[in-house]
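Our consortium's second objective concerns turning raw sequence data into structural hypotheses that experimental partners can test. To show how far this objective has progressed, the report includes one record in full. It was chosen at random from the queue rather than selected for favorable results. The single chain below, 453 residues long, was entered without modification.
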Amino acid sequence: MSYPGYPPSDGYPAFPGYPPTGQESVYPPAGQYTYPAVPGGYPPAGGGTYPAAPPSAGFPGAGYPAPGGYPGAPQAGGMPPYPGGAGFGVPPAGPGFGGYPQPPAQNYAGGGPAQIPVGFPGGQAPSPMPGPPAAMVQDTQGTIRAAPDFDAGRDAEILRKAMKGFGTDEQAIIDVVANRSNDQRQKIKAAFKTMYGKDLIKDLKSELSGNVEELILALFMPSTYYDAWSLRHAMKGAGTQESVLIEILCTRTNQEIREIVNCYKSEFGRDIEQDIRADTSGHFERLLISMCQGNRDENQTVDYQKAQEDAQRLYQAGEGRLGTDESCFNMVLASRSFPQLKATVEAYSRIANRDLLSSIDREFSGNVERGLKTIVQCALNRPAFFAERLYHSMRGAGTDDSTLIRIVVTRSEIDLVQIKQMFTQMYQKTLATMIASDTSGDYRRLLLAIVGQ
């Protein structure tokens, strides 16, 4: 299945001000849950299969502004124009996610193997495994890290010189923005206004255009605001970009979801749940509403007995009956932790003699199918999910630049290192190679500077 197309953009929202740095959120350990290397498995395109994901620690979230709004918020109820920027392209046609067999047993960070011991169920369930040490979930896997010896005033001066006079020194701009964290970029914006009495974003807009402008403006957005804006844009006007709703709401941590919901309200004066209800329906609507609560269990301890019970419950709700009890799938997939869901996927394959994604294929269709499968895929291997999204944004004729920009920017300080590794293993080419062949000019140079070689 292919992701829905992106309608032409009617502008971007007004750029937020300079919020204080908020509390950092961290991803639960991820990237250790592998797709199996089985011929014909996921993904269906590119000829690649999922090998084991490289071991890693968890993913810290990027620094987010504290909830409560950003200065310079747009008028309530509206979708303010985002300064400049090219329109949103149409993703290439092609198959979406295909079914793939159950992943092999894999060690969780800080714990024991995920497989069920011989004789279970019917014997004694293993003791719950401890979660990873706190230090393990603090290591970043991003390609962008905070620059050492950072000086916001010096960077503001570099950017001013790059835009002053005849012509623009795009390379100087790229050298700064691609090598500073999001928090540091916010400080550069504030320093620029203090030093020159001018708005950095307006100056950048006047000097840049097209995809490179959209990419740089996305980099200067506070991370939470960028997610909230992407969701608002996906639901504004005629049509709905369901793939954007799925990509964001089904992959973020609880803290990130709650901050996005608060930002959406403070910046756009709207309730995200009401917008979702107005733009979606049925079981897909219920799944997204569940995601908006930000209440997924994030305990890293795996309860094998519960995994067995949930697997049996899912089987009885789908393959084991005539018709489908959709609410059961929603309940399990929306509330269980990702390590717990992985154990459930493994138990399900033993009960149903088929993998859970194949059963979702058979029991569901359309957007709710894609949403449920995204959750399962993130439980198995989150970087592989984003690698597949990046591949399809550039596969075939044309490029879905908005998806390419959104994923590169939002994952650049979280897990883009692992996404690159999975991309190479899945498609036998590097992400940088595909970007280089699909983009050009300053846009290509900036993307490659963020992604790294």
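The partners drew two points from this record. The longest helix spans residues 366-394. The CA atoms of residues 317 and 328 lie 6 Å apart. Both points have been shared with the crystallography group to help prioritize constructs.
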